Amino acid sequence: MACATNAISLSLSSNPNSKLSSDFIPKLNRPVNVSLCASTSAELDPGRLFLSRPIGLSRRICANATPVMDQSVGERSSSVPTIVEVDLGNRSYPIYIGSGLLDQHELLQKHVHGKKVLVVTNTTIAPLYLDKVVDALTKGNPNVSVENVILPDGEKYKNMETLMKVFDKAIESRLDRRCTFVALGGGVIGDMCGFAAAAFLRGVNFIQIPTTVMAQVDSSVGGKTGINHPLGKNLIGAFYQPQCVLIDTDTLSTLPDRELASGLAEVIKYGLIRDAEFFEWQEKNMEKLMARDPDAFAYAIKRSCENKAEVVSLDEKESGLRATLNLGHTFGHVSNRNWVWIWRVATWRSCCSWHGYGC
Ligand SMILES: NC(=O)c1ccc[n+]([C@@H]2O[C@H](COP(=O)([O-])OP(=O)(O)OC[C@H]3O[C@@H](n4cnc5c(N)ncnc54)[C@H](O)[C@@H]3O)[C@@H](O)[C@H]2O)c1
């Protein structure tokens, strides 16, 4: 495994300043039907395949695709989304993953409650994707009206003052309890919109449309929502699960390289701390991920979501296991620094926590 670590750090550091323009990036359009679900065989579709996890947990992954390590990265097919289920009893929800999902209007529309929707986004994302999301919500659905609130962009705005802008808009628009909030953006928007949905009228329906790798593989899944306080990050918040997470992988085409790298740190995290097979796959495919290969990305998002969904379904409120996922944030947030350094710190921390040294 020492070899493996070096291999990944080399491929990560080999092209840290690559300039990839969005028109160079092909569409991600190879869906694979895989779902994470409870282990009782009665709940399983015939023909689904059990995969034992290398992590010694009691639940198992069941999938109706071939085992993940054997998936060929060349085949492309229909626009059927990959679906990963987050199994939380009556708060369970699907994560849809695929290319062109914002054009499949029924996917979003079936999760909307009531006739009023508030899209929460920011000044960077709005010009790129707001119209598309409004279309997805309203096409063939004339009874729904959509309001939006466009927040300033950046972690420094993840605070009470910005949160109030969401409540102001919701109250001015006379939204009632049967409305739906939609988070359109990265982790900052997802966390703020989710918290607003948890608090507005003591809780309204909520949908996540994550647009960064970080948000697609981590922050949009699992229901942690919140804002920062001047004395610390994410100190004010709530556990509040969405109705669905819709990951249209085409949105990654506009993501800056720096944000891509930061999100990849989260992908590596799952391999490091709980999924040896995925770690091996990353060794072989890291250069493809850095080059935004669409099939490699579709697979990495799916596998990451499966890992996150499994952890969340075992420890929703972070009483133990879920805290291990915070590793990725530690090094993901320093992604401007040298990748080899990040990798060494991450690996060292991971080994320490694995062996109980409490780092
Ligand atoms: N809730 C959780 O479980 C959880 C987990 C991890 C991190 N987080 C939170 O997530 C936040 C970080 O999220 P992030 O890394 O996504 O950062 P971010 O939301 O700030 O997004 C990064 C930048 O990319 C821009 N952007 C987003 N999507 C884009 C797109 N498709 N094209 C072009 N630009 C795009 C954003 O406007 C922003 O400028 C932190 O606040 C962190 O606390 C939450």
From TrEMBL:
Domain (3-dehydroquinate synthase N-terminal): residue spans on this chain: 149-261
Start and end residues of each 3-dehydroquinate synthase C-terminal domain: 263-334
Presence of the UniProt keyword Nuclease in the record: no
This protein's record includes keyword NAD: yes
One of the GO BP terms on file: aromatic amino acid family biosynthetic process
Family annotation (Pfam families): DHQ_synthase, DHQS_C
GO terms assigned for molecular function: 3-dehydroquinate synthase activity; metal ion binding
Keyword set, alphabetical order: Amino-acid biosynthesis, Aromatic amino acid biosynthesis, Lyase, Metal-binding, NAD
Protein family per UniProt: Belongs to the sugar phosphate cyclases superfamily. Dehydroquinate synthase family.
Protein name according to UniProt: Uncharacterized protein
Species of provenance: Gossypium raimondii (Peruvian cotton)
Source lineage: Eukaryota, Viridiplantae, Streptophyta, Embryophyta, Tracheophyta
